[in-house]
Amino acid sequence: MTDLRHAPRVGLGWDRHRLEPGRRCVLGGVEIASELGPAGHSDGDAVLHALTDALLGAAGLDDLGSLFPDHDPAWKDADSTTFLREALRRLAGLGLRPLSADLVVVCDRPRLAPARQAVRGSLAGLLGLPLDRVNLKGKTTEGGDAGRIDVQAVVLVGPSEA
Ligand code: MG
Questions:
Q1: How far apart, in whole angstroms, are the C-alpha atoms of residue 145 and residue 53?
Q2: 140 Cα to the center of ligand 1, angstroms
Q3: What is the structure's pLDDT at 10?
Q4: Could you tell me if residue 4 is inside a domain?
Q5: Is residue 2 part of a domain?
Q6: Beta strands in 28-144 (DSSP E)
Q7: What is the pLDDT of residues 4-54, one digit of tens each?
Q8: In this structure, is residue 3 part of a structural domain?
C-alpha cells in the first residue's frame, strides 16, 4: 500500500447555532457588536466549532461533541478558542499541523462584512498561519432566515516537519 504518512489530509466541518437577543456574539474568537448572538452551551462560536471539527476530521480524531460534550458543566459558557487550541495540540501530537483553511459563514444578522478581516486575522493567529492561507467568506440568505448562523469550514492538514 502507498505510504500516506506525508500526504496532506482534508477536513470538513459544519456548525449551526440559533441566534438570540441578549447573547454575546463571538465569531472566530472576535466579539462583534450585535443585538443577536449564538445560543449554546459554550460561547456558541460557530466559526470556531466548524473549524475545530474540520481539524479533528482531517486528523481522524472523532469530533468536537465527543471531545467536549455539551452536557458537561466544564464547558458551560466556555471560550471556544479552548476547543481549537486542544484540537491543534492533539494534531501536533500526531505530527500534524494546519496548512490552510477556508470558511463560509451564512448569516443575515449581524452582517459579517464589517468584522470579516478581524475574524480572518484572529483565525490566522490561532492556526499559526499567514493571512493568505486563511479565508473567510460571508453570505446572507437575502432575508431567508435571520434567526441562525451556519458555518462551513474546510482545512488542509499536513506533516509538522514538511
Ligand atoms: Mg456549535
A1: 24
A2: 19
A3: 98
A4: no
A5: no
A6: 30-31, 36-38, 96-107, 134-139
A7: 888 999 999 999 999 999 999 999 999 999 999 999 888 999 999 999 999
A8: no
Taking the alpha carbons at both ends of the chain, their separation in whole angstroms is 22
Residue 29 Cα to ligand 1 middle (Å): 13
Q: Average pLDDT of the chain?
A: 93
CA of 130 to the centre of ligand 1 (A): 25
Could you give the number of structural domains in the chain? 1
Q: Residue 93 sits in a domain of what CATH number?
A: 3.30.1330.50
Contact by Cβ (8 Å): 86, 66:
no
- Would you say the C-alpha torsion 153, 159, 160, 162 has a positive or negative sign? negative
- Owning domain of residue 70: 9-159
Task: Report the DSSP beta bridge partners of residue 19.
Answer: 38
- Residue 124 cell numbers, joined: 490566522
> 454575546: which residue's cell?
24
Express the helix, strand and coil content of the chain in percent, nearest 5 each.
30, 30, 40
